[in-house]
Design a protein that fits this description.
By secondary structure, the protein is mostly helical. The protein is built from 16 helices and no strands. The chain is flat.
Length: about 325
Amino acid sequence: MSDVGINSTIGEQEARFGDFFALLKPRVMSLVVFTALVGLLAAPVPVHPLIGFAAILFIAIGGGASGALNMWWDADIDAIMRRTRRRPIPAGKVAPADAMALGVALAVLSVTMLALATNLAAGAMLAFTIFFYVVIYSMWLKRATPQNIVIGGAAGAFPPVIGWLAATGTMAVEPWLMFALIFMWTPPHFWALCLFMRSDYDDAGVPMLTVTHGRPATRAHILVYTVLLAALAIGAGFTGIGGPVYLIVSLVLNAAFLAGALRIWRRDEVLAEADNYAVEKRFFRLSLLYLFAHFGAILVEALLRQWGLGGWG
């Protein structure tokens, strides 16, 4: 990580609370919070509301710590990419050292407090998740291999496992099914973004699939991963986290997602540029709905099971 061209702008304006909050990637944090909440509530162990609130709060803070440390490390490439150049560090609103200090402090706080509020297993899994995102993905994989988002996507898939552990203190198959759902969803979601961000990753020298293998190959990969994701997501409807409500939601969404992936696969760059990547942008937006709706359906099934109405009987 290089601070060249970043430190020179610091001091021109005083950092505000909103600038530090932006370091925590609040939009990403919302996904972390929701999937962790589903993992916690889907667990077969009742959790006291106060403990549950504390667990989700500290998981959210841990996610924010990861975001701050990621922005600290990636400040040099964030300054190059159009999508990220207005982030607090490249924009000169927060000094890199302050971002790192905030990230480390929040990481230690969140892991310690989650372990104290729930159990050591949940705290340890949160610590591993932060380490995986910051060190394995941000510092190593992101700039080393086009498989960065495939392997690194595991970091974003751990929150429901942490939520489950916070409730139970033990492992089971169900949280890993939720993990697998996010893990397989991440590549097509992110590669669609890479397609319509065009040259950002080329300019920054980040070996995303669009850079190393080209856009046609990326489109084919999106289709392959979407097919695998659909099989996993629909199959999960017949497991302990599924049920009739989940299955209906999954069938509808996966039909739409597969149709979108097919449209992306069939397109060439001339057509995509002509309509400003409209298909790719729709697919990306659909991918956000896709994940939230699947986890919303898992949550509904969990609540129905608590009332003796959910699952397959």
